[in-house]
Structures are given as C-alpha cells and as structure tokens.
# Entry
Amino acid sequence: MAHLIAPSLLSADFLNLQKSMDQLNASQADWLHYDVMDGNFVPNISFGLPVLQAIRKATNKPIDVHLMITQNDAFIQPFKDAGADILTVHYEACTHLHRTIQAIKQAGMKAGVALNPHTPVNVLKDIIADVDLVLIMSVNPGFGGQKFIPNAVNKVREAKAMIVSSGSAALIEVDGGVGMANIKSLIDAGADVLVAGNAVFAASDPVAAANELKNVK
Ligand code: DX5
Ligand code: ZN
# Structure
C-alpha cells in the first residue's frame, strides 16, 4: 500500500486555521491528524471538541484524532459527533482497552491504539486483531517539533511482524519528529501512515512539503 501522510494541526497557524485547512486541501496529504491533550495524561493542553467541529466543515479528508487524555470512554461519542473518522487512544491510559476499542468501533469510527516510546509493542498481542490502527509514538507525547527517537523504526518492524502473523488488517502510524530525514526508513520498516506537524506546517511552503513527503518512494 502507498503510504499516507497526515499533517498535524498542532503545528498549524492558530490565528488562521482556514489558511492551514486550505493548504491541507490543496496538498496530496491523505488525512488530518488532530492532537487532543488534557494537561493530565500529557504535560500540555491543546484543543478539543469545538475546534474539531469547526475544522470538520473545512475539509473532506478523514480526520485522525489522537487522544492524549486520561478519561477516554466518556469522550468517544462526543468526538464522533464532532467529526472524527479515526479515534486513537493511548494504551497507557486505558485500563479496559478492549472495551474502549469496541466502543469506538460501535460508535462508527476506526479504532487506534497508541504506544509511548517506552511501551513495548508486544503488549498489543491480544488486541491486535481488534484494532484498525497502531500508532507508534516516536517522541514523548505532548509537544510538536521534538526530536525523532530512532528506536521507533525497530518498533514499526515489530508491529509489522505482529500484524502479518496475526492476520490483522491494522495500519501502522508513526507520530513525532517525522520528516524527509527519516520517512524512507519508516516506510521500509512497514509504516503505513506518517504524521508530520512541523515538517509540513512550519515549512515555508506547507503544500509542497506535504507533497514531497507523499511522493517519497
Ligand atoms: C505530539 C503529537 C504529534 C505532533 C507531531 O504529542 O502527538 O502529533 O503534532 O509534531 P511533529 O511532527 O512536529 O513532531
Ligand atoms: Zn499525534
């Protein structure tokens, strides 16, 4: 499968979100990545439901919501109603992950599970058949513009092997510090979806930057 590019709104121009959405729409990017932080699971607060509702009206591309919050279950239906297509929760935040994943799917969204840099891939063994997406964090979650942690490449390889051997159809997404310097190694390791915040929206030409990432072979 050709890889997908998901620019992260966290690095967009908050004084002019319409402009950032126009750039996304004009580019060959596939999804919009939408980072939600609660100041509890991660040491930062970003944006939530009302902003999602607004940007939902500004694109037809799928919106890939990454929840970095402690209380996930209470927000599944609200994020569906606000316009999420894919909803990803953190393994580290969910005591009853299987129940949470089923609830996301029942609400009519694709369900993802994210792993922090310190969390081994093998904890997903008994949930891999149920998830639509595995998100490998290649930075510690909470901020855009951080340095890529190279061990993420090994984790992508491990996730790929687990997905193939289990017969799961899950996609592998990589998030944090992704750019032209490492995208090829991630694709070669088995990554399907590459999140890019700073590499797109901090570039002088965000449309060209997204297209360049999309056209890596
Ligand atoms: C970090 C977020 C990322 C972030 C990526 O906690 O989950 O999605 O926006 O930004 P870059 O690509 O700049 O590292
Ligand atoms: Zn993210």
